[in-house]
Amino acid sequence: QVQLVESGGGSVQAGGSLRLSCAASGYTHSVRTMGWFRQAPGQAREGVARIYTGSGTTFVADSVKGRFSVSQDNAKNTLYLQMNILKPEDTAMYYCAADTKLRWTLSADFDYWGQGTQVTVSS
Predict the structure, then answer these.
(1) Which residues does 38 contact at the CB level (< 8 Å), separation at least 6?
(2) Per residue of the chain (123 residues), what is the pLDDT tens digit?
(3) Rounded-to-10 torsion of CA 36, 29, 4, 53
(4) What's the CA gap between 26 and 30, in Å, rounded?
């Protein structure tokens, strides 16, 4: 089992920045892909970014490309999502997820999920 705990959410004005963190514990050695997803009320869960934990290769969705970046600190078993130039449409619950397989696509069926952290962007 892998446990994931997100932090760093909050309220910010448009144009601002936030950095989300996701602390992983448990059988982290089995994790090969970690990702960030978000879900706004009434909308489907959307994949935002992912990283291959072994190579550090990243992917960021077109909707946030150029504004968001994903990184990891393997020594701390922590995943980060740096969010810049935030827009009101970025308002959502943000979830961290982990998978024991290499996941090319950000489909919402990763093996493990955190409880989420709320991000609210006001105009």
Answers:
(1) 45, 46, 48, 90, 92, 93, 94, 95, 119
(2) 999 999 999 999 999 999 999 999 999 999 999 999 999 999 999 999 999 999 999 999 999 999 999 999 999 999 999 999 999 999 999 999 999 999 988 887 899 999 999 999 999
(3) -20
(4) 9
Instruction: Annotate 52-108 with three-state secondary structure.
Output: ECCCCCEEECCCCCCCEEEEEEHHHCEEEEEECCCCHHHCEEEEEEEECCCCCCCCC
Between CA 27 and CA 34, with CA 32 as vertex, the angle to 5 degrees is: 90
The residue type at 34: M
